[in-house]
Write a structure and sequence with these properties.
The protein is of the alpha/beta class and about 500 residues long. It has helices at about 1-35, 40-65, 85-90, 95-100, 135-150, 165-170, 220-230, 230-235, 255-265, 310-315, 330-340, 395-400, 435-440; strands at about 80-85, 105-110, 125-130, 130-135, 155-160, 180-185, 190, 190-195, 215, 240-245, 275-280, 290-295, 295-300, 320-330, 350-355, 360-365, 380, 405-410, 410-415, 425-430, 445-455, 460, 465-475, 480-485, 490-495. A hairpin with a 2-residue loop joins strand 12 (about 290-295) and strand 13. It catalyses: alpha-D-glucose 1-phosphate + UTP + H(+) = UDP-alpha-D-glucose + diphosphate.
Length: about 500
């Protein structure tokens, strides 16, 4: 009797939950229609496509209960599913590599703003080296490829509504460069109230408070947006077969001819449709997504999908030895096929945010690499660390501006003068967070060729021609200031206290 009543209660609960889900979905659809009614015809047409994608992700969000992965089913990927880069390199290159290049397009993810580094506008327009921005370096790299091999590799920028206008203005300056540049916009999705699960937007506008009501839904949106805007079909018609996708702030993500050749030389019936470049994890990368074997497929596991009890295990360098660099090589015909079949179910990342006024909202996002499970003969390639050189903070910026790297045709390579291949560990304190403030604290970028570790905290400035070696720790306590004098050489030193150098 007790068993029966529990069973009935469970049944009633499931029915109740199902009704609740339907209610949430109906309310959401009503609200979205009301929002569309506030837009002009052209805008409504684009937004309707965006909202179709949003309805689908919202529907799946309501269905899923608990963590997206069953921890017990996680296995290490089989040996042959992650190839060492060296093995791919031993194949060498064919004489007509230009024929392969002509089947490639480069896609850079350009949706992010420079706000975390204290800059207005798109992050790709921040100067990173000799007055060159991320975008300048990207254009130089591809132009160099096209000239060297007499090829036609186009550059495609995936912008967001945050970066589109500013990026398009700047593209004029590349008119006479030998690279065709295309742009498309990723979707604009409505942020939803954490309690009511309804959009917080009042209308389709982007101004004032309503500007906070929208978000670009992560880079997993690339597949739908790319297809919706017509660029996928355009590139296929031009004979392109693969895209190389990477973050625009990863200065190591250049076109690798060996990986390209590996893709192009596979037999037609075993064509590799997806390569994810991974690299060995260090202590600095514990949060990076990793490749796992799950239900007979390679799958990307992100930290947001890990049950709380297993987060430490996920971060361990011993169990999960590699992480995703987000440098991806993807087959265009395969994207077309999967989009037409609506067969790409990307895991949902629920990203909670608190707006300035204190309102709790959620953003439903997806990651581009999560699609790996849907493609045939997918492969991980374990690449050298040099292919992962992201600039997320001013500490990263200091590294790429220094003499540790040399710049050649838009590509940064580790200086031959550095004895060991690892990059130094740099931690700059909050006084260096904003790019402008960071630049004002260095009269010139220090010599860092022999540096292992640098920690700087508090009000610290560097004079001209400073040289840093080994482990250097500089700490100015609250109210103190340290000016490192011009020409100083610090080797394995801890500097603390107060040191002022004033012009006489």
């Amino acid at each position: 009797c007790v068993c029966l009543s529990v069973y009935l209660t469970r049944g009633a609960m499931t029915e109740f939950q199902e009704k609740l889900r339907q209610q949430h979905e109906e309310s959401m659809h009503r609200e979205l229609e009301a929002l569309l009614a506030t837009a002009n015809t052209a805008e409504a047409q684009i937004s309707r496509k965006d909202f179709d994608g949003f309805k689908e992700i919202f529907h799946r969000f309501l269905q899923v209960k608990g963590p997206a992965v069953d921890w017990a089913k996680i296995n290490r990927p089989p040996e042959d599913s992650i190839q060492p880069y060296e093995k791919i390199k031993t194949k060498g290159l064919p004489e007509n590599i230009a024929a392969s290049l002509n089947k490639l397009a480069v896609v850079k993810l350009n949706g992010g703003l420079g706000t975390s580094m204290g800059c207005k506008g798109p992050k790709s327009l921040i100067s990173v080296r000799n007055e060159n921005t991320f975008l300048d370096l990207t254009v130089q790299q591809i132009e160099h490829l096209n000239k060297t091999f007499n090829a036609d590799v186009p550059l495609v920028l995936m912008n967001s509504f945050n970066t589109d206008e500013d990026t398009k203005k700047i593209l004029q300056k590349y008119k006479h460069h030998r690279v065709n540049i295309h742009t498309f916009n990723q979707s604009r999705y409505p942020r939803i109230n954490k309690e009511s699960l309804l959009p917080i937007a009042k209308n389709m506008g982007m101004n004032g408070e309503n500007g906070e009501a929208w978000y670009p839904p992560g880079h997993g949106d690339i597949y739908a947006s790319f297809a919706n805007c017509g660029l996928l079909d355009k590139l296929l018609a031009e004979g392109k077969e693969y895209i190389f996708v990477s973050n625009i702030d990863n200065l190591g993500a250049t076109v690798d001819l060996f990986i390209l050749h590996h893709l192009m030389s596979q037999p037609a019936d075993r064509r590799c449709e997806f390569i994810m470049e991974v690299t060995d994890k260090t202590r600095a990368d514990v949060k990076g997504g990793t490749l796992i074997q799950y239900e007979n497929h390679l799958r990307l596991l992100e930290i947001a999908q890990v049950p709380k009890a297993h987060v430490d295990e996920f971060k361990s360098v011993t169990k999960f030895k590699i992480f995703n660099t987000n440098n991806l090589w993807i087959s265009l015909p395969a994207i077309k096929r999967l989009q037409e079949q609506n067969a790409m179910e990307l895991e949902i990342i629920v990203n909670p945010k608190t707006l300035d006024g204190g309102l709790n909202v959620i953003q439903l996002e997806t990651a581009v690499g999560a699609a790996i499970k849907s493609f045939n003969n997918a492969l991980g390639v374990n690449v050298p660390r040099s292919r992962f050189l992201p600039v997320k903070t001013s500490s990263d910026l200091l590294l790429v501006m220094s003499n540790l790297y040399s710049l050649d045709a838009g590509s940064l390579t580790m200086s031959k003068k550095r004895e060991f291949p690892s990059t130094p560990h740099v931690k700059l304190g909050s006084s260096f967070t904003k790019v402008q403030e960071f630049l004002s604290r260095f009269e010139s970028i220090p010599d860092m060729l022999e540096l292992d570790h640098l920690t700087v905290s508090g009000d610290v400035t560097f004079g001209k021609n400073v040289s840093l070696k080994g482990t250097v720790i500089i700490i100015a306590n609250h109210g103190d200031r340290i000016d490192i004098p011009a020409g100083a050489m610090l080797e394995n030193k801890i500097v603390s206290g107060n040191l002022r150098i004033l012009d006489h």
